[in-house]
Design a protein that fits this description.
The protein is an alpha/beta fold. It has 16 helices and 17 strands. The protein starts with a helix and ends in a 10-residue tail after the last helix.
């Protein structure tokens, strides 16, 4: 039974959620913030009621998709779930999810918690929730005005891992040397995942990497194979650090463009053939992280298969929206060079007539520094220039984006800038003809605006209705 103060925080948070949804705002972080101001220990009090504890997912790219994939597997296991599915991954948003999940009397009846958390927030989250495991997807340069150097981000996650209960586990990406290095100092159990198949990638680094140096000794890493960014098969000839052998690994990949992928995955339970409807090579990493977590949670193979094969992207993570007259919109979050490059790569692989709308904001949640636009490989759009029927930019820094696209070779007169996000989406949709796809590439707060605009235009439900 919660104390009167905790109950007051819970009820005020629930009231704020109801009011926000009543007026169409959704209620992601604000209600949790109210609850915490009244009762600072409310998240701890609610999270400790989870019957089987919580799994936390963090990292630069992929944490939303990984946590949603894992949530889909949990639901196919006939287990109940508390999950910050709106993607609000600071402590306020996570607290909102728990307040929403609790009964009016303050009970959490869920079996499991699946929590996506921001890298800077994870030490505090681990202190308050004490999860049974942490999944780390990757580390890339992102929001430098918040995090500073990338090493600070890695250090924050490393600090969180050291705060875990002794029985907890770290689920780490073996192919990212920054992530894998965390396993060296972690006192608990580590489960690594990675990709062994070399049908994708190259022997030479084709993209900018966040690091070419060993985090343990500072000497250059030697790579036998690159996938993207610094992810690949590596070793340090100076100190002996090398890619750990993953227990969960992909050994065969077939990419199918917008239709997703098929791959073979080897696990301690056997070798499985899986299909994924979520497009993009990098989403295979997200699926691997979800599989590794599900195995750690002892979820059945049948549920893992059903959860992944039935998973459909939403909330702007390669989200496909079917429109009338055979038209479609494709919504893909971009927020740093590596993630943006992979979105562009997926766009280029999908041939046919298309429209493009890039929406750039520089609010605090996006990161004030947008210089990363010049590091992202927008030049790789060149093969599909003949297929681009129109190009729009929008958002607070939409004019900067128009300039960036102009430098790729798109004539300035072919780029249409509209400051208002909803107006830009409406105009781009009106120009999209039957059989065409409108690709909408927003930064984080621009994604929230885009989803709200698509809802008002009748093309997407509210996130809590999805």
């Amino acid at each position: 039974m919660l104390s009167p103060r905790l109950l007051a925080g819970l009820w005020m948070g629930k009231t704020a959620i109801w009011l926000n949804r009543r007026f169409g705002h959704g209620g992601t972080s604000f209600p949790g913030g109210i609850g915490r101001r009244v009762a600072p220990q409310i998240l701890t009090a609610l999270a400790r009621q989870l019957k089987r504890g919580a799994m936390v997912v963090t990292g630069t790219n992929g944490k939303t998709t990984t946590s949603k994939m894992l949530a889909a597997i949990v639901e196919k296991s006939s287990l109940t779930l508390t999950h910050n599915r709106a993607g609000a991954n600071l402590v306020g948003g996570i607290t909102t999810a728990f307040i929403d999940s609790a009964t009016i009397g303050g009970s959490i009846t869920s079996d499991l918690g699946i929590i996506e958390v921001d890298e800077a927030t994870i030490p505090q989250l681990v202190r308050e929730v004490q999860p049974k495991g942490v999944v780390v997807t990757n580390f890339f340069r992102d929001q430098l005005d918040r995090f500073g150097e990338l090493d600070k981000t890695v250090s924050l996650v490393g600090e969180a891992l050291r705060l875990l209960p002794v029985q907890s586990i770290a689920v780490l990406n073996a192919d990212d040397p920054l992530v894998a290095s965390l396993g060296k100092d972690f006192p608990g159990r580590v489960l690594y995942f990675g990709i062994d198949d070399r049908s994708y990638g190259a022997r030479e680094m084709l993209q900018s990497a966040e690091t070419r140096f060993c985090r343990l000794c500072g000497h250059p890493l030697t790579y036998d194979w690159f996938f993207f960014g610094q992810l690949g098969h590596y070793r340090c000839s100076h100190c002996g650090f090398e890619r750990p052998e993953p227990k969960i690994k992909v050994t065969g990949i077939q990419l199918k463009g917008e239709e997703g992928s098929a791959f073979t995955v080897e696990t301690p339970r056997g070798t499985w053939q899986l299909e994924l409807s979520t497009p993009g090579f990098y989403n295979i990493y997200n699926a691997l992280a979800a599989i590794a977590s599900a195995i750690r949670l002892d979820l059945p193979e049948k549920a893992i298969r059903a959860g992944l094969q039935g998973y459909r992207t939403n909330f702007g993570r390669m989200e496909r929206i079917e429109l009338e007259d055979g038209r479609r919109a494709f919504l893909a979050l971009i927020k740093n060079p590596t993630g943006c490059d992979e979105v562009i790569r997926t766009l280029v692989q999908n041939r046919g007539p298309k429209r493009l709308l890039v929406i750039i904001n520089d609010n605090a949640a996006d990161g004030r520094d947008i210089s990363w636009l010049w590091d992202a490989d927008f030049e790789s759009l060149e093969p599909v220039y003949p297929e681009l029927r129109s190009v729009f930019t929008s958002g607070l820094r939409g004019e900067d984006m128009a300039l960036r696209l102009n430098y790729t070779g798109i004539p300035a007169e072919s780029i249409r800038y509209e400051a208002n996000v909803e107006s830009a989406i409406r105009s781009a949709l009106e120009m999209t003809e039957p059989g065409e796809t409108l690709y909408i590439l927003p930064t984080y707060t621009a994604l929230l605006e885009s989803k709200a605009a698509l809802t008002r235009l009748g093309h997407s439900p509210h996130y809590w209705e999805e």
